[in-house]
Design brief:
By secondary structure, the protein is α+β, with helices and mostly antiparallel strands. It has eleven helices and 20 strands. Strands 5, 6, 12, 13, 14, 15, 16, 17 and 20 form a nine-stranded mixed β-sheet that branches. Strands 1, 2, 8, 9, 10, 11, 18 and 19 form an eight-stranded mixed β-sheet that branches.
Amino acid sequence: MDKQTKDKALDVAVAGAGIAGAALGVALAQTLGSGFSVAVFDPSLGREPARDDRVVAIAGGARRLLEAIGVWERLLEAQPIRAMQITDSKLHDIVRQTFLEFEEDEEGEPFAHMVENRALIVALREAARETEVMIVPAGVDSYSADESFVRFGAGGNDYRARLLAAADGAQSKLRSLAKIQTIARGYDQSGIVATIGHAREHNGKAVQHFLPSGSFAILPLTGRRSSIVWTEESAEAKRIVALPPSEFIAELELRFGLQLGELEVLSPARAYPLQISIARSFVAERLALVGDAAHVIHPLAGQGLNMGLRDVAALAECIADSARLGLDPGAPEVLTRYQRWRRPDTVAMGLATDGLNRLFSNEFMPLKYLRDLGLGLVDRAPGLKKFFAREAAGLTGDVPKLLRGEYI
């Protein structure tokens, strides 16, 4: 970014070039064109994205957003999830009864697609460079705002913008600088993630085993591979990831089962502490929180990234609507609209995933009977199953245009 650009106020600055931040920059630049200045700040933009074994589940609404901004076509290895099986059992049960099954709808719409995290970031950054997004390889490290501008520092330089979007992650520095508190609680659980190879085809089926220690999800990837998201008490998770390979495989087979044949571990197993954290406000003066900076929830429903992309779709629409009227994109009414659109939905999803985790992570038999009865009732109610599938896809309620595949 040259001196003239530094001296000129940006319309929108985005702090953070992860998936949410990069998607917001691309959406705004493509929608509003060269007359609207958008810059993305992140120190990692000065180098190639790091090697990353993580994968993400892209729900239907998020996929439509990525299609609308020209990113989805760049992803060459997206594995559709065509069926979902949910079980509830003890660890050593020989037979795991299936209580709930989903299949793709009559139009062949998959529930979600599994995509490598790094591949998606590369595709978003390529799209950003091909649009009018200004790329600044520096992190935002200060913030202040007044009635006209937000002023911030990055890489030793000072900048001004009419709106600053904080997409700087769960430990958001901008959220702290804006003195926005969070409602947070740890679970004393960790999520173990790894990529697993298996001898047989998965046929696009995902499996969610609810076990007393937490959920164990098998998510199909391209080829004879699957990603696991394995929840355990934190001390147990630490023990498991430190096991020698043969012992780790033995623990894995207890949960994975042998339905896909012999297993092998294709990426190092890593454990991440789990928590729920929701910002008490998604906005401050000329500041909007997006993605993990605004919310972190339990991964059992696979909604974390998708919620972040719903933030992107809603904020981009709020900004675009104001910009086309010649209004200030950082004005209080724009930020209020964004907050009202996204925070109630986020709180509801956070409470739902928290409740599900509490409901299924225990061995209390009367409760197990009731939850299995509930799963069975949903399985026999096509209307309910369709509603839950649309809810997971982000297609219920007041859906932003980008999530419907429409341009803003």
